[in-house]
């Protein structure tokens, strides 16, 4: 019981966030000295989404680059590159090994950068300590959805089916087993007294692919970030049964009940932020610190937040790093409770 309490506390307290394109190698020379070039940036910049198209990372990367360009905060060309595989682990292995000083290759991430480094199965030796956290920009919340014509009309219907026989249902997510979407997906079952290890979870490379599996009849439900489900809900393709937030959200999700309203005190906060390479130059760190803070204050960014159903939550690089240090301990406790810690 004590272990369960620790896991619940960890969830409720906030466990849940550019290489040169053809014109430069990914070796140590890409970033220059520790001080860096005072005229940075002088080349096109790539913002990586470590997933397929359509999920939260992809949308965040595209929104950030779009607003930075539209507002002229960044005048160099910026492009988004998708690097799916292993819920972000494939990209992290490449990035931490080959881009340690590459100031022109940034990426977006969220709690999986912590979880993938700490879990037992499918883990990676690389995590946020192999990067330079630059800024947290948003917060989102986990949600559970089903196909629009699903027999499960309410969260209670779905949870009761899981209670009866968790092996008969398949829950999809856009990250690897033991990672963020998995934890989002099993949280309601756990809160209802179902052993989370018995829930059948199938992972896909990004929220977009997981939704496709749901719509194709290969899953009964999906657990992922609420904002990435909005477009499918508005198109009448999915029904969101509940959000893992402390209170109802605004925007397009304003009519979706929280899980607490439905008798389950289940909350899962998802942050998203921007990261640079581990040995990023001082010039690049200052540049992106200034630009991302300015981005967070623009009307264009606030409009993007509203469009995507995200909530603003800005932290500068130092504060973001301190937050990640704290969350690392909470994630480890949570994975231990699931028997998934390495």
UniProtKB/TrEMBL annotation:
Keyword Plastid: no
Protein name: Transporter
Family, as annotated: Belongs to the UPF0065 (bug) family.
UniProt entry tagged with the keyword Signal: yes
Keywords: Signal
InterPro entries linked to this entry: BUG, Bug_dom1
Endpoints of the signal sequence: 1-22
């Amino acid at each position: 019981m004590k272990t369960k309490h620790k896991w619940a506390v960890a969830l409720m307290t906030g466990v849940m966030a550019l290489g040169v394109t053809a014109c430069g190698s990914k070796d140590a020379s890409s970033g220059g000295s520790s001080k860096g070039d005072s005229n940075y940036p002088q080349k096109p910049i790539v913002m990586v989404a470590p997933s397929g198209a359509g999920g939260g990372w992809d949308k965040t990367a595209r929104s950030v680059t779009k607003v930075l360009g539209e507002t002229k905060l960044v005048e160099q060309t910026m492009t988004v590159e998708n690097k799916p595989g292993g819920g972000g682990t494939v990209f992290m292995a490449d990035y931490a090994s080959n881009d340690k000083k590459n100031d022109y290759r940034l990426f977006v991430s969220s709690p999986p950068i912590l979880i993938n480094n700490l879990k037992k199965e499918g883990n990676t030796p690389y995590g946020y300590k192999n990067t330079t956290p630059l800024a947290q920009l948003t917060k989102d919340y986990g949600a559970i959805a089903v196909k629009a014509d699903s027999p499960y009309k309410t969260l209670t219907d779905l949870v009761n089916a899981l209670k009866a026989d968790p092996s008969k249902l398949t829950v999809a997510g856009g990250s690897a087993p033991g990672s963020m979407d998995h934890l989002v997906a099993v949280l309601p079952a756990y809160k209802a007294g179902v052993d989370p290890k018995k829930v059948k979870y199938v992972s896909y490379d990004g929220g977009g692919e997981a939704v496709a599996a749901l719509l194709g009849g290969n899953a009964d439900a999906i657990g992922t970030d609420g904002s990435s489900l909005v477009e499918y809900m508005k198109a009448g393709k999915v029904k969101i049964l509940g959000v893992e937030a402390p209170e109802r959200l605004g925007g397009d999700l304003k009519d979706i009940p929280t899980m607490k309203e439905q008798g389950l005190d289940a909350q899962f906060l998802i942050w998203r932020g921007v990261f640079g390479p581990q040995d990023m130059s001082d010039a690049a760190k200052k540049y992106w610190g200034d630009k991302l803070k300015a981005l967070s204050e623009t009307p264009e960014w606030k409009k993007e937040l509203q469009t995507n159903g995200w909530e603003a939550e800005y932290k500068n690089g130092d504060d973001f790093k301190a937050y990640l240090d704290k969350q690392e301990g909470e994630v480890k406790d949570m994975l231990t409770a699931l028997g998934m810690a390495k």
